[in-house]
Amino acid sequence: METKELLKVISKSETLKWEGAVFALKVNSVDYLPSLICNIAEEHGLKLIGLFVNEKETNKLMVHIKVNSLEVIPFADSLSARGFEIEYCSVEYKNEDEIRTKYKILMDYLDLE
Predict the structure, then answer these.
(1) Does residue 7 have a pLDDT over 80?
(2) Which fold has domain 20-92?
(3) How far apart are CA 2 and CA 112, in angstroms?
(4) 11 or 107, which is more confident?
(5) Is residue 57 within 8 Å of 93, Cβ to Cβ?
(6) Residue ranges of the alpha helices (H) in 2-113?
(7) b/e burial code for range 19-28 (CB count within 10 A of at least 16 → b)
């Protein structure tokens, strides 16, 4: 799959359309267990609606997750208590029109549409 095709697939993801909080977690690569993150979310009545992982530095991963709620303080506390380093958390809601406008600008810039 070419990069342009992959970007188009990602851009159509339902994850981008749903309201929720986004976290970036810094995790040791040997300790990375997506099931643990899911279990912590479920303990707080949340669902993971998106997950993306990339390497931050040697032996460290940056795990980006999106959950289906904006009420995430207890979830964030549980993540921290279990050793997850929260690098970033965003709970701002952007309306759908704003997202579509910014998406269109990005696609025009990348010359994908």
Answers:
(1) no
(2) VC0802-like (3.30.2130)
(3) 12
(4) 107
(5) no
(6) 3-11, 14-17, 34-43, 73-81, 96-110
(7) ebbbbbbebe
Residue with tokens 């549409």: 113
Q: How far apart are CA 60 and CA 24, in angstroms?
A: 12
Domain ranges of the chain: 1-17+95-113, 20-92
Q: Is the separation of the CB atoms in 53 and 105 below 8 Å?
A: no
Nearest Cα residue to 82 out of 26, 40, 21: 40
H or E segment at 72?
none
What does the block give as tokens for 46? 């949340």
Per residue in 42-79, pLDDT (tens digit) is 999 999 999 989 987 888 999 999 999 988 999 999 99
Residue 85 has what pLDDT? 93
Pair of tokens at residue 63? 């795990």
Indicate the pTM of the whole model. Answer: 0.73
